[in-house]
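REQUEST ID: PR-0412
SUBMITTED BY: lab tech R.K.
PRIORITY: routine
TASK: structure prediction, single protein chain
INPUT:
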Amino acid sequence: MYFAKLKGVKIIFVILAIIYVHISEIQPAYGQEIMEADTFLTDKGSFDITFIGHASLLINFRHKLIYVDPVMREADYSTMPKADLILVTHHHGDHLDSVAINHLLKKETLLIMPEKSKSLLRIKHKIKTIKAFDKKVLLFARLEAVPAYNIVNLRKTGEPYHAKGEGVGYILTLDNKRIYIAGDTENIPEMKTFNNIDIAFLPMNLPYTMSPEMVADAAIMFKPKILYPYHYSKTDTNKIKLLLHDKTEIDVRIRKF
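STATUS: complete
OUTPUT:
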């Protein structure tokens, strides 16, 4: 009788353990609890950029909220204010998340992304697609999509981690400030054509995007006034500061991502 009870308790324990593991697996892995933010002055006012984590950003421009690549692993978007504009750079899971986007949507939200991202998104909301070199004039901003792709870093199959044409970066103009959000890319030749970039976000993690040396090369190509390495995972961020230490026209800022 004792052993039968013991066996029953053991079975119940195993069932509860399985349920616990299953629940743990489906819970979103929220990122940092305290998010840093910087404020920038324009010729007409100011705006804030909050560094949510990895590739996720929030820009507050005169109470218009712009989210870039929102994903649940970086924040609990169910607790965050609704979006006026959502920009998605490409279709990979650390940049595109239907759950996060659904939490941020309101009737008026403008949702912009490349065609491949749209094909994978499971939401009931109007989506505007965009490709490299497209330009859009919005009610409160100007937007330009630019190329984002790999040249050097390839998968074992020989395919690039980010194929040309599948994803984009964005140049967002708010008043007189131009913000370049690169998405996942390398130091591609098109960067030489970028002009008057005030703030740049460049990804820095191998093998998917760039090494610190590649980020330095990219920054030298278009000389942003402020450079934020992001999407950097475990990369040593001190390296990019050392590589650009003599480029005093570029203010390299390290924030938590």
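NOTES: The CA atoms of residues 41 and 189 lie 30 Å apart.
REVIEWED BY: pending
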